[in-house]
TrEMBL record:
<dbReference type="Pfam" id="PF04972">
    <property type="entry name" value="BON"/>
</dbReference>
<dbReference type="InterPro" id="IPR007055">
    <property type="entry name" value="BON_dom"/>
</dbReference>
<protein>
    <recommendedName>
        <fullName>Osmotically-inducible protein Y</fullName>
    </recommendedName>
</protein>
<keyword id="KW-0732">Signal</keyword>
<keyword id="KW-0574">Periplasm</keyword>
<feature type="domain" description="BON">
    <location>
        <begin position="36"/>
        <end position="103"/>
    </location>
</feature>
<keyword id="KW-0677">Repeat</keyword>
<dbReference type="InterPro" id="IPR014004">
    <property type="entry name" value="Transpt-assoc_nodulatn_dom_bac"/>
</dbReference>
<dbReference type="InterPro" id="IPR051686">
    <property type="entry name" value="Lipoprotein_DolP"/>
</dbReference>
<dbReference type="GO" id="GO:0042597">
    <property type="term" value="C:periplasmic space"/>
</dbReference>
Length: 103
């Protein structure tokens, strides 16, 4: 009987250790959020390319939780600001962080 009781505790310990490994960390809230961010990035890039004034500049776009980050260079502050205005006009954008450098 003691042998059976001892083996039961071993199995319980193994099970608990195994379940502890199942608790993962999430860097994103969900797969849906990741897809939404990718879609927003694509829409912002498309909108920037469609604008003749802004499309001439190398501007990178990254979206995290609906916040669009713009990086790159522009000739004037007005052109950099126009990129911000274009990005804000895209559906799903919560805010825009403009880190575009003026040459």
């Amino acid at each position: 009987m003691k042998s059976l009781f001892g083996k039961s505790w071993i199995w319980v310990a193994v099970l608990l250790i195994g379940l502890a490994g199942c608790a993962g960390t999430q860097t994103r809230d969900s797969t849906g959020e990741y897809i939404d961010d990718a879609a927003i990035t694509t829409k912002v890039k498309s909108a920037l390319i469609a604008d003749k004034q802004v499309s001439a500049f190398p501007i990178s776009v990254e979206t995290v939780k609906g916040v669009v980050h713009l990086t790159g260079t522009a000739d004037t502050r007005a052109e950099a600001d126009k990129a911000t205005t274009i990005a804000r006009g895209v559906a799903g954008v919560k805010s825009v962080v403009n880190k575009i450098q003026v040459k």
